[in-house]
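Students often ask why we bother encoding 3D structure as a string. The short answer is that it lets us treat folding as translation between two languages. Here is a chain of 114 residues written in the first language.
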Amino acid sequence: QVQLVESGGGLVQAGGSLRLSCAASGFIFSGYDMGWYRQAPGKERELVAGIASTGSTNYADSVKGRFTISRDNAKKMLYLQMNSLEPEDTAMYYCAATRPRYYWGQGTQVTVSS
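And here it is in the second language, the structure alphabet:
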């Protein structure tokens, strides 16, 4: 059974940092491209950062230079280090396996106060 379990969300002041973690199980983690998505109230879900099975990364323009995605294939873990957080980063954050097929986690809430 595939599971993606996020943790690390919470309430933080603007300018602060959070580190999200995602524990994966039930599929061959090292062979999958992975990503972090977010969805704010009233908005569509958007890709925040992606990391391929090769290790190459890509970021949304809005988070470049502030967020860093990483993975530990041995531990089957995905991470998102978020620095210099802004109120606009407030959203539900989802861990996802994206290729060769999509799996989704349940999400973890990030709230940034001004």
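Translate back mentally: The longest strand covers residues 91-99. Keep this in mind for the problem set.
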